[in-house]
Structure formats: structure tokens, C-alpha cells
Amino acid sequence: GAGVSQTPSNKVTEKGKYVELRCDPISGHTALYWYRQSLGQGPEFLIYFQGTGAADDSGLPNDRFFAVRPEGSVSTLKIQRTERGDSAVYLCASSLTVAVQETQYFGPGTRLLVL
Amino acid sequence: AQKITQTQPGMFVQEKEAVTLDCTYDTSDQSYGLFWYKQPSSGEMIFLIYQGSYDEQNATEGRYSLNFQKARKSANLVISASQLGDSAMYFCAMREGHIAGGTSYGKLTFGQGTILTVHP
User: Fold this and answer.
1) CA dihedral B71, B98, A33, A12 (to 10 degrees)
2) What distance in Å separates the CA atoms of residue B82 and residue B119, rounded to the nearest whole number?
């Protein structure tokens, strides 16, 4: 079956602009996660959804970052007033449930470059 | 404090040899899961193997096995019979299962990764 998909694969924007990153999880997966990966680092957690609600948004760095999952499937990560420090690969993952043993399957990521 | 520590920034191994990638973790939870992912240069994160804190046996998946030492809080990945295609970044990650207010923690916490290079 289809894996996690993310669009766009690459996004170049100017400082101060608004961007939206989209994630389409594996069909039937109730949990969806966003991570950010800087060059040479491990992914860092941003937010996760269980169904439509954000169950944990403790990783969002500030109020410029916001994410939604209105119908419990596709999610959009929104970044306002982008800064150069926001440049990173944004990874989305999904899992069937949030049980400890459930594997999170990752999408290919969106590479964001803020000039 | 670091929850996941991978002390080897880079490792080299000869093709067909075995290699061990180290991972130590820190948690006060009794229920947790440990995962290893592979990230080739193309960037996708590929799940390799899972070990639960209550699992009594070490996990194995094909050429991958996990050397789980709970008392030492270590979960080292062993790759047997290395292949050139194993060259990649490898991440250890932990998911804590603490129940707080009826909600499980869902996030993975990753280590810094180890770059593995397999020589012919």
C-alpha cells in the first residue's frame, strides 16, 4: 500500500514569508507526527495528532508554528514569518495507534530553505 | 540530560563483517520502546527493528539484531554480514510509555546518529 507522502518535496522561500507543508499519512493510521531534522542531527519532535486533535504540541518552537489535521487524515504544518533558522527537513510520520510498540513510518520529508 | 546517546559519530566496517552500533538511553518509565532507523543519503527514514522494555528476548529482524541490556540501559544494534547498501546514517530512538492522565506519550526521541560506512 501507499506510504506516507509529503508535499512539496522542496520549498524555497524568503525570510518573513508564510509556508504550508502537507502530510498524507498511511490510510487508517490514527496517529500523525511532525519532526524537524537539521543537517547532521537526529529528528526532533514538533507535534503529534491522535485523530483530529493535537495530543502533544510541546515540541513546537514558538507561536509561528502551527499544525492542523481537520478531518483526522491529512495534516498541514504552517509556519508564519519564516526565519533562516527554520531551514531544515520537516518529516512527517504516522502510526496505527500511539501504543508504545507501534512503529512510526516516515515520509520522504520536505526540505525547507529560507533565504 | 540526553535521553538517547549514540557515542559513535562514524563507524567503518568491511563488507561481510559484523558491526555493532551503540545506543544508551535514559528513562524513569517502566514501559518504553526502543527503535532503530536507517537513513540513507536519499533521506528517507527506514524502520529496522523494535525492542520493548518488557521483552525478555533480544529482537531480531533478518541481519539486524538488538543487544538489549536493560540494567545498563543500552540497546545496541548489531548488523551481521554487512553489505555495501548498509552504508547510511543509523538512528536509535525511544518512545516512553508513561501514562499521564490517560494519555500515552507518542513521540520518539532520537539520538544524534552514527554514520556507517561499509568498505568493499
Assistant:
1) -70
2) 9
Nearest by CB: A100 against B52, B109, B110: B52
- CB neighbours (10 Å) of residue B50? 19
Scanning the structure block, which residue is given the C-alpha cell 555495501? Answer: B84
Residue B64, C-alpha cell as written in the block: 539486524
Write out the three cell numbers for A4.
506516507
From the list A74, A82, A86, the residue with the least C-alpha distance to A25 is A74
Choose the mutation target among B45, B50, B92 for the interface with A, i.e. most A CBs under 10 Å.
B45
Q: Strand runs (DSSP E) across chain A, as ranges?
A: 5-7, 10-13, 19-24, 31-37, 44-50, 53-56, 65-68, 75-79, 88-95, 105-106, 110-114
Could you read off the pLDDT tens digit of each residue along chain B, which spans 120 residues? 679 999 999 999 999 999 999 999 999 888 899 999 999 999 999 999 999 999 989 999 999 999 999 999 999 999 999 999 999 999 999 998 765 544 456 889 999 999 999 999
